[in-house]
Amino acid sequence: MRYKIGICDDEAGQRDYLQGLVTAWAGKNRYLVELRQYGEAGSFLFDYAQERDFDILLLDVEMPGTSGIQLAKAVREENAGVQIVFVTGYYDYFSDGFDVSALHYLIKPVDEGKLFPVLDKAADNLRTRQRAVLLATAEADIKVSLADITYVEAENVYILVHTVRDSYRVRMALAKFAAQLDDTFLKVHRSFVVGLKYVKKITRREITMLNGDTVPMSRGMYDQVHDALVKYL
To answer: What's the CA gap between 183 and 165, in Å, rounded?
Structure first.
């Protein structure tokens, strides 16, 4: 496997240290990695505008100018698959990491015992991202990556498959479609299945997705949804 990884931190020593850890992780797993270092968010975003193919981002939170959180939000608006890991000295921004579907939030100092399992999970997620389903709509058969599906809702004998860019109407039972999904999805209501990485907020009655859509939650499902989200993080 080959991964393109960006490290963004305003401290050069920290960037070099993280690059050493990532290089060791890649060697251990026989992965090929292309590493890019950035001292501030602006330089990363400049490169990202030209090359939108980063797989993993290791971001400091507090940097001069644009923060790591702001950088992550800019990337997440158009890229659902990139694996975002915050590596910071502050706990204060943990909830912001949740808002951008960050894979993990590591507190400095970081060592291989903390970082390697997170990178392993990122690699697993990236492999899953390649999985796709074929949606037979009235207009055409459309291939959709699982990583792009935000939630699915039943509508009589049809389902509406909502993705980060479009929605597709397919004649199929929700249960049959859900059987094609993996454990990053959860059925939260008889008519709804949600992608856990796109969940922004949950209450006892409903789920708010990152795009602002709300999904009803069946009575008694709160603890199960909460536990699934904690496990996913």
So the answer is: 22
Q: What element of type H or E holds 134? A: strand 132-136
Residue 190: exposure state from Cβ atoms within 10 A (0-12, 13-18, ≥19): exposed
37 backbone φψ class: left, alpha, beta (φ>0; ψ -120 to 50): beta
Helix (H) or strand (E) holding 155: strand 149-155
The CA distances from residue 225 to 41, 142, 181, 184, 186, in Å, are 34, 30, 17, 12, 8
pTM for the full model?
0.58
Distance CA(59)–CA(92), nearest Å, equals: 15
**C-alpha to C-alpha distance for 5 and 94, rounded to whole angstroms:** 22
Distance, in Å, from the CA atom of 74 to the CA atom of 19, rounded to the nearest integer, reads 23
Report the chain (233 residues): mean pLDDT per 10 consecutive residues: 90 96 94 93 90 89 86 84 87 59 87 95 80 87 88 96 93 92 90 93 94 95 91 68
DSSP letter at 162 equals E
Residue 3 backbone zone (phi > 0: left; psi -120 to 50: alpha; other: beta) = beta
Using CA atoms, how far residue 174 sits from 149, 186, 187, in Å, is 14, 12, 10
CB atoms within 10 A of CB 41: 24
The residue written with tokens 């790591």 in the block is 68
Q: Phi and psi at residue 203, in whole multiples of 5°?
A: -125, -175
Instruction: Give me 5's structure tokens.
Output: 């990884």
Backbone angles phi, psi at 101, to 5 degrees: 55, 45
Let me know: does 102 contact 120? Beta carbons within 8 Å.
Answer: no
